[in-house]
Predict the structure.
Amino acid sequence: MSANFNLSTWISDGGPEQDVVLSSRIRLARNIEGIPFPNSAGREELQEVTDQICAAIKDNKEELHYINMSDLPEIERGLLVEKNMVSPEFSKKGSSNGILINDSERISVMINEEDHYRIQVLMPGLQLNKAFNMADELDDEFEKGIDYAFSKRWGYLTACPTNLGTGLRSSVMVHLPALNITDNISKMLEAVSKLGLVVRGIYGEGSKSIGNIYQISNQTTMGSIEQDIINNLKSVTQKIIEQEKNARNNLMKNDEIKLKDKIKRSFGILKFAHTISSKEAMKLLSDVKLGIDMGIISDVDTRLLSKLIIMIRPYHLQKSVGNELSTQERDVIRAELIQSKLNM
Amino acid sequence: MLCQRCGKREASVHFTKIINGEKDELYLCEKCAQELGHISLQGNDTFSLPNLLAGILNPGLESSIKQTDNYMECDTCGMTFSDFSERGLLGCSECYQNLSERLEPLVKRIHGSNNHIGKVPKRKGGNLRMKRKIDKLRQDMDTAVEKEDFEKAAEIRDRIHELEDKIGSE
């Protein structure tokens, strides 16, 4: 079997530093003057938000098109959640919320979530500046037709004070297996948190890391200019890449046999297991990616992990076979899917 | 409801801690709330509970926990500060103005700053963009003077005058 639907290009394309950085994300939170925030707005006011936003980008060059969430079947909404493009709560809300999206799915705009809208740009690898420039341009485009809720003192006004000021959240998703194996991860994470950054597991807030993947983002949104927020994240990320690569070299120097054994065993299980849970799959795929990036496993594409962590999630699996699956069936299909990708 | 800390006295103070949209709630009696303002639970995280409580409660411990303060209301959307503490979200952009007295210390606590220095929207920002530019030029002019590059300083000065005229005529 094969999954013959398209994954967003920010997931399937390669990017700079892709052996450590899976993707870069920029998010700008914006609200419209004179309309209550979504949590306090009525149906007509929410519709007004959607109308203003759609009108403002009618002729935009990014070719964004509007999708009302309630028009999407459950499975399509699930796919958006699994790609981390909308939050689970957002996908369940009523007919007043929607998303603007372009074909590559690099740019999306969530309408009527916590704020009136949030511009989001996703890029493969470490490309924060490029992602920010795209978001910034689209923001300028919106502003031509929309009166922003903005105060000279507080900046862009947002429903939650944690986003106040620039409304900018920049983040990178990084794969740090060697720092984990060498027990350096907690030291690194502690250092990072002292530099005004927050670290989370991959599936967003509060979750633990799965498959050695961490999301690092700026903690505060006010008191710095946008470029400084991004530069801080970028330079810390570059340090982390350096540390991770050092740890990989040390592993190879001091523990080569053990390391190779671990990676090849994981590769073996993925290749031959009849059923596999997503948690186990993530763990093993992380080992295999490390193996690919260190040249221990050849003939497999390093972008595999980025692709598979999305493709092995429940809605994506269901989409690939075209019908609903029980947990057990899912574990079988998941194992088959991984094998079809590993043998490509 | 009983205090979540001592489990004996009735809870009369409600705290909400929001970090990146993640909300932690705590119901305390007045005594425990006061004590927590001074004791350290664990770590020295800026967002740790004691730090947050201290930030909200001090100075003027007594006056800050007066219940009436929590009913301070936004004239535009009717949201009270206590609604906000429960939900973690404000009702409208005017809340920032109307509840500023209570929000100010909170914002400072969250961001370590009370001043936006980033992007300014072209239309809504009015001449704030221009003023920022002039400030920057003044700095450049000072640097040029320090370096005794008076020709450049004069150039910058003319540019500043031009911009100031523009703001004046708007």
Observations:
- Chain B has eight helices and two strands.
- Chain B touches chain A through 38 residues (CB under 8 Å).
- Helices of chain B lie at 30-36, 49-57, 61-64, 81-87, 95-98, 100-111, 128-146, 150-169.
- Chain B has three domains: 1-39, 45-118, 126-169.
